[in-house]
Design brief:
- There is one protein chain.
- The chain is mainly β and 367 residues long.
- It has 2 domains: 159 residues, Jelly Rolls (Sandwich); 176 residues, no CATH class.
- It is built from 4 helices and 19 strands.
- The longest helix is centred in the N-terminal third of the chain and has 29 residues.
- The protein is globular.
- It starts with a helix and ends with a strand.
- The relative contact order is 0.20.
Length: 367
């Protein structure tokens, strides 16, 4: 009888162990292990041009990972100079190196062609920060990757940050980053493309009595093969506006600038931009004015708007905004003849010259 009890106890313990192991296996299979990597970098430089780009390694994962999100802030400090004219600009980029090479801390690069040749990089995102006032400016961001961006396991993996910035008055200019990379070890392994939709132009908002010009940055789908047959799975990046002159007259009058990102379908691209080239290009057409409606193609029924950023006189003369896509809008299948468009739509209540520099630094994730 004692032997039987011992056997039952041993069997019970064995079954409990099997049950616990089964629970652990189920939990392991269904749990996504999320991790964060933190990076802080600060640089003070003194230049009056963009000749030197400064690169910094920020993350070297030793295992395969799937990047879910990169968030944080970029700050710039523009100091008073003897001309008392504030003017600084920073383009920052986060790049994954596919070449097994990584920059040294504050490695100097002379051009983006050099960076591409050296690192064979995939730019995960870029951002623009412009400043026409003295003091500190902060741009905060949170960029998702859908699907999560896959980085394979290999020796000398490297994600790095590049600062391309200057204070045009040749005084010390401070750039700082504080970033968090959120990633999983579990995900779908796939080769992904991220391509730019970026550009810069001068626009005018003085269309009270006569039209000014809408601006367009356009990437057609077709001959270059970058977009053909793909689907857009997400969009990251920011846009900026900066008044050419920091004067009170800009602040007192009412003006509005809209960046509208859209996919043109059903041959709208050829109708809106006749005889356009088959690679990325810019375009202009007339705005509305007074009570005359703006007839931009961006408002056409075959324009699928995926994101928008709005600027107005209420928030200053030097602004940046992260572009946030609409919920549940992706994926969007791209066909030959379509195009991806960033339309810049200005309006204002004045009839005298009123110019802004505007820039887009957008990246399209494809699958």
């Amino acid at each position: 009888m004692l032997k039987m009890n011992l056997k039952y106890k041993e069997l019970s313990l064995f079954l409990i162990k099997i049950l616990l192991l089964s629970i652990c296996i189920v939990q392991l299979c269904s749990t996504s292990y999320s991790n964060d990597y933190l990076s802080k970098i600060s640089l003070t430089k003194k230049t009056d041009n963009f000749e030197i780009k400064n690169s910094f390694p920020i993350f070297s994962p030793q295992k395969k990972i799937f990047i879910k999100n990169i968030s944080g802030e970029i700050s710039t400090i523009t100091r008073i100079n003897n001309k008392f004219i504030a003017g600084s600009e920073l383009l920052f980029s986060v790049i994954y190196s596919e070449s097994n090479k990584c920059p040294k801390y504050n490695e100097h690069e002379l051009s983006y062609a050099d960076i591409e040749n050296k690192y064979n990089g995939i730019t995960l995102f870029t951002g623009i920060v412009k400043q026409n006032f003295f003091g500190k400016k902060v741009f905060r961001f949170s960029y998702n990757f859908e699907p999560n961006f896959f980085i394979p396991s290999k020796k000398n993996n490297c994600i790095f940050l590049t600062f391309d910035g200057t204070d045009f008055s040749n005084v010390p200019y401070t750039i700082s980053s504080n970033m968090k990379i959120n990633y999983d070890f579990i995900g779908k392994e796939s080769k992904q493309k991220i391509i730019p939709l970026d550009g810069e132009m001068i626009i005018s908002v003085n269309n009270l009595k006569s039209p000014t010009l809408n601006g367009y940055i356009v990437h057609p789908v077709g001959v270059d093969g970058l977009l053909s047959g793909k689907s857009i799975s997400y969009l990251n990046g920011n846009t900026s506006i900066s008044a050419e002159k920091n004067t009170t007259i800009y602040k007192k009058n009412s003006w509005n600038i809209r960046h509208i990102i859209s996919i043109y379908k059903n041959n709208l691209c050829s109708k809106a931009f006749p005889n356009h080239i088959n690679s990325r290009f810019t375009w202009n057409d007339y705005t509305g004015y007074g009570i005359i409606k703006n007839k931009s193609s961006i408002f056409d029924k075959d324009s699928i708007i995926i994101a928008e950023s709005n600027y107005s006189n209420k928030f200053g003369l030097s602004q940046e905004k992260q572009v946030l896509p609409k919920s549940n809008i992706f994926p969007i299948k791209l066909n030959n003849g379509d195009c991806v468009v960033d339309a810049i739509i200005p309006s204002g209540n004045m009839d005298f010259s009123f110019n802004f520099n505007t820039e887009s630094q957008l990246h399209i994730q494809l699958r």
